[in-house]
User: Fold these one by one.
Assistant:
Number 1:
Amino acid sequence: MARTIAIVEDDPDQRANYADAITMKGYQVNAYANREEALEGFDEALPDLVILDIILGDEVDAGFQLCRDLLAKSPSLPVIFLTERINEIDKISGLRLGAWDYLPKPISLDYLAERISSLLRINEVRAENEEETSATAKRIGDLVLDQDALLVSWRGHRIDLSGTEFRMLAKLVRMPGHAVSYETLMNATMQSLVTNNTINTHMRNIRKKFEKVDQGFASIKSEYGFGYRWSG
Amino acid sequence: MRILRRIRGPRLGTKIMLLGLTLLIVPWFSYRQLVEMERLLIQGQSNAQLLTAEGISTLFNGREDLFNDLPLAIEDFENLYAHPLQGPVRLDGQLEDWGEDMTDNLLRFGSEGAPGDADLQLVLGERGGNLHAFLRITDGDRVFRDPEYLRLDAADHVRLTFIRANGEDARVALTMQEPGPTTAYDMDLNWQYAQTGNPNSAVQGHAIETETGFQFEFRLPLQLLGSSRYFGLAFVDVDDAASRGITHITQTLPTAGKESFNLAVLRSPEVLSIIRGLGYSGARILVIDAEQRVRAETGSYQTMETERAPPNPALALLRQAFDELRPLLHWVTTGETYQPLQPRPEDSDGTADAAISESLSGEPISLRRSVGDSEIIIAAHPIVSRGTVIGTVVVEQNIRDILSFESSALEQVILLSVAALIAVFIALLAFAGRLAWRIRSLRREASGAIDQYGRLRISELHSEMKAGDEIGDLARSVSSMLSKLHQHNNFLENMPRTLRHEINNPLNTLSTSLENLAEENPDVRQSKYLDSAKRGVIRIGSIVQNLADAANLDESLEAEEREVIDIAELLQSYVANCKITHSNCEFVLRRPEHPVYANISDYHIEQLLDKIIDNAVDFHRSNSPIKVHLDYQRDQLQITVANRGPVLPERAEESLFDSMVSHRGPQNRLHFGLGLYVVRVIAEHHGGFVRAMNLEDGSGVAIVVQLPCVESRHTATSRTANGQSDPLLAVRRS
């Protein structure tokens, strides 16, 4: 049975483009133009994954509200924000709500499809074995990285990273001790428009998440003018 | 020149003070008024006096009978005045009942200088048609008449000489046998025997003996004297009661060359009684006959010298200052030289005489003259009878009251004016100061509302907003201007973000549509037009992104956490990485050997360096190194990035760091002039600044960033790693 993807996007052109592209990848697509429509649709049946725009018509926070409602119904539902609101504060609030990823417009449709399949797979893996450490897990010093489940733990503490952050971290720890350039890290985000600033912001967020469980965390080093380095 | 340019005109305070000077018109006007008032008062006084004189003179018009009872020529006689007596007089040898102060009128006769034997003091009085005489005689040895002797000159006695009404000479001796009533006898030519045995009962007298001599008082009817009124008197002193010879004769008879009689001049009592009722304080009324003899006089122009309480020294000083100041004041206000009436003692009588003669010639006149320290006005009006002038009435009035009133008024005016001036000046000064202060503070706040880059710092003013006056209006209107500007600025600042929001959606549509298009038509996928369309989409996205980043920079800087970092280490790592990223460039780093700590946000400093290095790489001449130097002094560190290459165009140094200003050529379309703007914003956010300058030898450009650093213990010992000799860094200070 094909997976159901719900798209909530007020702009008809973009909605149609998403729907076409995703349908082409073999998914069942339900596209909604506003919050009310979407809520009605979700009442009938919950999709497997939801792509949300934040601004829907006149409601500037409709996407956040929808996300809250959805996660209240099904906490493990993968939610992706796909929005033109790329301010730091929006990104943070989106991820705090429990969204799995926060993708800024403009976006490449291939990337979107890749994200969708990746998140769906992760969700499956998580659903299959909630507790056990996956066999795909990789250990680098105190860090344990599960590529498939997008799970990270530091000295035994689970760390929740967004998809992008996970990807960047994975890239960083691939060769511990070696500097990883901004360019490499940009590729890791798999987004079309990334600046050094974006990388720095992501890195800072990652650092903060680690520091939350370990005050003395200092494994991510800045290579000023070049990139970052993991020193396990 | 700069100072001259700064002075555009008088300040507000000066202007108000200058306006305040117009208050000087008050003392000026007051003084003029005062002078005018003085003139008017004196004029009025003169007129009043003249009127008085005229009024009095009309009483005497046609009354020549009052004047012609005196001999016409009196120059040859010495006058004995007969004072009018107010009350009844008893013949008792006492002066007390003659009226007050008669003692002062005593005339002395006899030995010159020290009082001697047989000296005589005399006063004449007139009442009820009788001539009264009082004599005080000094006589050591008093000899009374002995009835045994027939000769009357064998004892002390008083001789009277006069001319009778019928023209005969009269000789009367007053004798006494004891103190008490005297007996008068008409005497023979030799003053030895009485002509008749009967005493002359018309002349009655009384003598008393005192410790020093006698006091005689007698009276005789005036009709005895006739109209000529020649009258003489002598005291015959006999000292030896045995020999009874005459020792002294003290007489009022004139000296040689004069007629043998004194003239008893009697004030015309009628005239006197007429003018007496007219006298008033501070005025003297004289009635003078055609011979310029004073026929009646009443009052005195010497007012009572009411000795005022001595004024306190400050006031006296003030008055003196006024007196000193007055000529100048007079000159300034009226344009005339101040001429106070100087006392002229030598001709003060002359003035009066002139007035009298003038009026005697038939013209009424009033004059001003100064006597001693007071001034008087003399008004004279002729008395006319049957077409001829028979006399004149002179009214003399002291005008010291007027003058002292004037001078005290002057003092008050000046004092008040000065006080008012000072008060008004102080008030104006305070007002001007307050006004200027308010305007200054408003200006300060208004000019502080916008920083040097034209950005609004505040959206409204706080000072003067509640003031109800024009300054308040100004403040409110400036404030509302600012708030409107603030709204507009907000709109402009949000513009890039809004733009990004608005553009990102259609851009996304475009990009996704392109992808779908390629997916749908596989042959399109290879088309170069698809690629160029995608590149266009990416470029638009990056433009919008850059704009939004620059606009968000302030916000993201606010949110950034700072930490103390070794900048030398950061630079070292940064430059090392630069050599990798910009492999076609050579980088030279010079840094102190020990750490230089600064409280910074490392991402942003990195971003700052990115922009500067990008700039330097773009402009550097190939095969020349890009020099990065770190120097520090105490609490300031300086990062200098210098490259050889084209120099900055003139005046570019100022605008280089402004937003959207690019001095790159038109071939660099991807630059929006945001790079160096970002550098400036970051540097300023860290409390530092950035400037660009041409190298001293004109071979390139240096960008200098100064940031505050955390003081370290190495600061004092070392400044730079290796001297100041590098020509590349000897930058031209503009």
Number 2:
Amino acid sequence: MEIRPILASLRKHRIPAMLIVLEIALACAVLCNAVFMIGQRLDDIGWPNAIDEQGISVVSVNGADPKLAASDIPRDLAALRGIAGVTAAAAATSMPLDRNPALSSFTTTPDGKTTVNTSIYFLGSGGEQALGLRLLEGRFFNADEYADSGFKDFNSTGHVMLVTQRDAQRLWPGQDALGKTLYTNGNSWTVVGVIADVLAQDPNFSGPGGRYSSVFFPLHPDGVMGDYVLRSAPQDRARVLREARRALGRLEVGAVVDGATYAGMRGDYFADARSMVWMLLLVCVVMLAVTAFGIVGLTSFWVGQRRRQIGIRRAVGATRSHILQYFQTENFLLGTAGVVLGMVLAFGINLYLMQSYEIARMPWYYLPVSAVAMWVLGQLSVLAPALRASNVPPVVATRSV
Amino acid sequence: MFGYYFDLALRSLKRNKALTALMVLAIALGIGASMTTLTVLHVLSGDPLPGRSGSLYYPQIDPRESQGYLPGKTDPMDQMTWIDGMNLLQAKRADQQALMTGGSVAVQPDNSTLDPFYQTARYTTSGFFPMFGVPFEYGHGWGDAEDDAHARVAVISSQFNDKVFGGGDSTGKTLRLDGEAFRVVGVIGDWNPNPHFYDLNRKSYNENEGVFVPLSTSQDLGMIHDGSVNCWGNGGGGNTPDHNSPCVWLQFWVQLDSPSKAAAYKEFLVNYSAQQKALGRFGRPPNVQLRNVMQWLDYNMVVPDDVRLQTGLAFGFLLVCLVNTVGLMLAKFLRRAGELGVRRALGASRSALFAQLLVESGVVGLVGGMGGLLLALIGLWLVRRQPAEYAPLAHLDPVMLLITFLLALGASLLAGLLPAWRACQVTPALQLKSN
């Protein structure tokens, strides 16, 4: 296809040509960034979490008398373990993704200056099994370590801990964490086990570095434990949760008992991200539709204006496919200009967003992918008007409109 | 003349329905999307106490040790320690002042159909009610005497009143909180400041505190504290810190009726910090801030980033829609070159033609604006069904309604400028000849 006549004709219709280029460029820039944001949110929603997410239910008890915890918690747990289908039950202070961040800063030397902020969890006896923690190295807690470990000033009075793999790498890069010691305010703990990565209570609050930095302490029954973690087969979850709430409601008179499956808690945590994804998708789809209709409208007008021209070309020997190709090539040229401009614009918007918001740099491949999408969109929208143009009969040339 | 142009516009728009519908739809979609997000942004960044917020200030001081202090760079603490809060409260240097913090209380209703439940609460000194201009449906707040006497009195919200007492004048009734009997002294009327400016540590929006009790009483009874606790040095931690520990967990607000009073109060905070440093309690030189409500909200960046991003995105979308409309209008106006040529030949000036075409784009904008309004209402309805904490607040107000139409009209006139100018360049003779 000869390009020069197309360029010559575009030069005569500068304003409509520029409008199409601008429209494609803007749509491309917005599309790139929106799709990138969608990708980021979907990444967040899919964060792995090395606990038995599908099998866990959590029942929380608020307002029980903390002084009676030492006797109440074993009694409650005995009742919970008696529910058919419960394979493990334990008390805990908090759960991953429960939005109540509990962070403490640790150092790797007794007088260290650089502290690492880590999410802390306290587990009652059997907590490792109830959560379904995955041990990578070392061992879980021994029974006497549970009995010895209390809670004072937000700290564990025991001397052992489990760390997640990510936290171990953060604290002792390139070294084996097992047997190492962590310090804070004159207390120290020895790492007895390294476990697969468990999310923080509020990963968005902890930030990217602290997302998987978690440590676990053993704890004998204590008033700070508000959560009962129940593990069962996924199909038993709903029934187990119902029965557990009923049982605790009977045992803890006057306390507020609440419960949820862990899958439900995870869904709640990411509900905002999910609704943002839907909104971004909606905007993208509508924007592409508007752009497509705009191209259809302008090209139709163009075809209408050039009926006589097309007729003359047909009369002097151009075939239908020549005419079709003419409009397709023209759209391809405009699309290319728009896409190039759009990619520059998309990159600029991303730079601005990186400065003003917590947004990462867009990987380069988003640009060509959106470019191809805009090209395809352009070709699809030009098809109908171009076909109409190719159907202009040669006889038009002989009529004076 | 305007009426005539209006009539011409309607005729012309009717002639090519598909093109007109496309233009109206593009404007409506752009306006609908941007007005939905703009309304949410407007609601979230609004003034929680119009008329009052300018004279309410949040004093910040820095009682930490000298370690880690960078002069001019380190921000003072976001909350107060018990000791500083009490000192500043008792100094009574402002027109009004209140020291407060958030919590939750177990409510044990007498009425047996209701199970015990937890209610978010505020523990505050008496200045809270007059300073924030809290309206009362029944009764009133408590006074300094009740604060000093650690009295068992409570003020409740009207929703809470409906839930527990079934509405009506509940002053004088007994309310059981954390196992203790409290006397209800007041029921708050319709008051729900958004953002929840006086304590941003929990939810920033739509936080409904049902119960207010004196701070002194809450401390006597060891009521649960909810919110952020920030400790340093040998501060222990825990959710309800000891009164002498180096932890901040209280909010202190003051009312200062004139800028000169605000300046004097800041001076007082500097002197107080210097005095505490001399006493050895503060490790840092005076590091104070005195922000009013809107400055405090700005400083805390309460509006979620997602909402700003959505607004930006929606305006990007509006821009795409506008460029699209410019293109379609250009096509429409240029197709009528013949008609415009005739008008020119009959004596209409270029500016008359220009005005006629702008009226036409204005009509498109107006209809598009109405469509946009409809879409924005649907959009806001969708936003209200979202799980976000601010979602229930997303309602259109008269200001935003007006802005919708101005934006639609302005956008379509802007979109009409280039095509109208281009169409006015027709040479009448050429157009007449070729027809």
